[in-house]
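Quick one, T. Sequence first:
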Amino acid sequence: VTVAPAPVAGADQADLVVRNAGGIEVQRLPIAPTAEPVQWSGRTGDGTPLASGFYSFEVESRNNGTVIRTGPAEIYARVTEAQIHGSEIVLVLDGGQSVPSGSVTALRDG
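Structure tokens:
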């Protein structure tokens, strides 16, 4: 999954915070305080895959160690399948993750 972070201007440090569907932080990764895309593997530091499910991403921006903003990060992933679950359309992403179609904010070619 490609994550598009957006650290706040003036940040000298940033973390990508990964939360599970229950909102619990499951991973925190240091990233450059730039808008450069980050590849998220869905694995822990020792290579163990995280559980299948829905994950959300936030960028925590800091300056001199003080948090100055926490905001959402968008993700980009190839859609491999669309499924109907009851009355909801769910998109299956490359790698097997599923997301509700209502959470999609943009599409791009490529």
